[in-house]
Amino acid sequence: MTLPVTTVEVALPDGSGVLAVLDALQRAGAALLELHDDVTPVVVFAGFEDVVTAAHIQQALHPLAVLRMEVRPARLLDWQSTWEGHVKPVQCGPLWIVPPGRHAPAGAMEVRLRALDAFGSGVHPTTRLVLQRLVELQENGLLPEEILDVGVGSGVLALAALRLGSRRAVGVDLDPAALDAAQENAKANGLTRRLRLLPRIPDERFGLILANILASTLTELAPRLAQALLPRGTLLISGVRTTQKTDVRTAFRRAGFRPAAATDEGDWTMLEFLSGW
C-alpha cells in the first residue's frame, strides 16, 4: 500500500519515556509506529497519513523529554516495505513472530503480522516478556482455554495464546484502528473464528488476562480486571517501568489480587498476579 505519508523521528535520552511517547504520537494521529530500542539513543519512528507540522508534534509530546524531533514532509511511501525493512522475526521458545516478507524456520510455530497501524510487533520487552510467560504456561500445561487481552493492539499476544493452544480469545481496545489491525492479523493467521474483538471488556470471566498498556491505565483498570478474572485465574500485566513496580503492585493488591511474580528486562517489568477470591 503506497500512501502520501509524513514521517516523524523522535530520539529519547533513554527508554524511560517510550510508552508515553508512543501513546502521545498515536493520539496525535500516527497510523504507523516503530520502536528502535536496540540503538542509543532510543528512537521512535512514526508515520502520519496526512500532513503534520513540527508544532503539532511538539504540542503532542509536551511535556515529555526528548533529545530531538525531526518531521519529514509528506512523500509517497510504501508502508509495507518500510515496516518489513525494520522488523525482524522474533523468537520466543517454539513461537516465532513474523512480519511480512520474513520467514521463520521450516515447521516453526508462527504468528504472522500484516497490519501496520497498531503497536505490537513482539520486539519491545513489554511484549516479549508476556510472550515468554505464555510459552512457559503452555509448556507446563497451564495455559487456559479462554483468555482476555486488554489493549490488544496488533493482536500479537492474543494470537500467540491461540497458536499455543488456547481455544478462544477476546481482544479489547478503545482504538478502532487497533481492532482493525488485530482483525487483519487474525485473518492472516487463520484465527478469525477464535478471536473476538471488542471496544470494551465484556461481562465474562477468563482464566487468563493479559494487559500490556501504560501503568497509569493499568491501575485504573485494576477493579474491572478483578471482575473479569475467574477464581484461581492468572493476570499478566506489562508496560510497567521497574520504578513503577511497587505502586502498581499495591494498586492490584487493593483490588484483591495476590502477587505471584515479577520478571524484569532492562527498565521494564511484567507483573503476574493470581486471583485472591
Task: From the structure above, extract its key features.
single chain; 277 residues; alpha/beta; Alpha-Beta Plaits; Rossmann fold; 2 domains; seven-stranded mixed β-sheet; four-stranded antiparallel β-sheet; 31% helix; globular
Overview of this protein structure:
It is globular and about 50 Å long. Strand 2 and strand 3 form a beta hairpin. The chain has 277 residues and is α/β, with parallel strands linked by helices. Helix 4 (125-139) runs parallel beside helix 5 (156-164). The chain has eight helices and 14 strands. The mean pLDDT is 86. It has two domains: 2-85, Alpha-Beta Plaits (2-Layer Sandwich); 87-275, Rossmann fold (3-Layer(aba) Sandwich), CATH 3.40.50. The termini are far apart. It has a seven-stranded mixed beta sheet with strand order 10-9-8-11-12-14-13, with helices on both faces. It has a four-stranded antiparallel beta sheet with strand order 2-3-1-4. A three-stranded mixed beta sheet has the order 5-6-7, covered by helices on one side. The longest helix has 15 residues, at 125-139.
